Amino acid sequence: MTTSRGPRALFPWLMLAASPCLVGLAGPARAQSPAAHQHGQVDLAIGLDGPMLTLALEAPLDSLVGFEHAPRTAAQRQLAQALLARLRVPTGLFTPDPAAGCTPGAAELDAGVLEPGAKPSANGHAELSATYTWTCTSPAALRSVDLAGLMSAAPRIARVNTQVAGPQGQFKVTLRRPATVLRWGR
Q: Signal peptide location in the record (predicted)?
């Protein structure tokens, strides 16, 4: 179920409000054309504003579960529900640099057609949006996020296109499997 404060609504707001240096990165995944939707790839925006770390994930459902329609079989329903349960708990899914002392906070998910009773996608391409927050005691020490939990939960992900914005600057980082740790900064 999507609400006006769900991850899709929050993603552009996050990128604009998290930090003045994020303005140039506003809504990168949402601004792309439908042709930019590529299976095996996900987009991740990382914003650090003071002690608040926010990760916004946009992913074609095919990259996560191997299909982009409402689950049709018992096996697809089981796969979708297991993935959604895992994506609702950020602990272990994403592991911020331990030196930053980050504690997980809220997780919001917009799973589109994977949710019971959802309507099919009009263009045949369905995506998942998720937003995760942490509070960090030493945010200046944040230079990496380990995505091993995400890569394990969704083995179809081959590439993570990431934009990072925070006090150290703005960075574009691409992570390709088998690597699982995003590193940035100076």
A: 1-31
